[in-house]
Amino acid sequence: MPKSTLASPPLCVLHEYDGSMQAEVCLGTPLWMYRPKKVTRENQTQQLLVIGSQLEAVSRRVQLLNVKGDSGQGTGVLQQESDLFKRLETVVGQHTESDMKTFITSDPLGQLYPRMLARLGVGPIPAVDKRTPFEAHIHHLARINQILVLALQLRTDIQCLDNHKYIAHQLALLYSNLANASPYLDSFRLEIERQFPVVKASSRSADGAPKLPREIRDWLHALISRLLQEIAELPDGLVAPLEPVLACL
After folding, report:
1. Which of 68, 75, 133, 155 falls between 20 and 30 A from 240, CA-CA?
2. C-alpha dihedral over 141, 27, 43, 48, to 10 degrees?
3. Which of 138, 143, 145, 130 is nearest to 54 (CA)?
4. 182 falls in which pLDDT band (50, 70, 90)?
């Protein structure tokens, strides 16, 4: 190998590792966790919400396993369900003289979890593909969160990137989420619909590095700023799907 090749500078130099950029992996962490050292009347509702939501998810998994006829994984899931019902019984028993089944069926909180109630022998089992009230609550929050993430990413990209090739694709994703989120956000969806052909045409360039015109960037920035402000104010139209859970707090 020629000596000059060995002495040539590297093609790239890696930055030093910054520990603050490490991403925490939480795949094994439960989505809902709330275990105070001592259960009081003040935090009992939060405890019941957490346990109920966990039971709703586990009960749905039991349904899926029954549909698939998969008994291999059923033992562990059923044990998890049993442990959660024991925790629920403990929390209920600390502040009421009613038994768990009577308390859950009489309290509005129980109506959020029809899968859990069905496992207690109360009411029909909801279809696997049907969202229960608490599942609808989580779905709505996830949709709003996705809109926020997409909007923030889009605002950053139109300001910082020199290549806007994928802006139309990102805007289409935002449009799709707005269409499925809430009728209250329809005005933003319709505004995107009117301007999308212009954005799509501007995102194409023969040299492979398109950049949106200033007026389109300004419009997008203003649209996203208004959207973020609207969500931050939590208008009634966005809060309404959350009311069944909020009413229990």
Report:
1. 155
2. 80
3. 138
4. confident
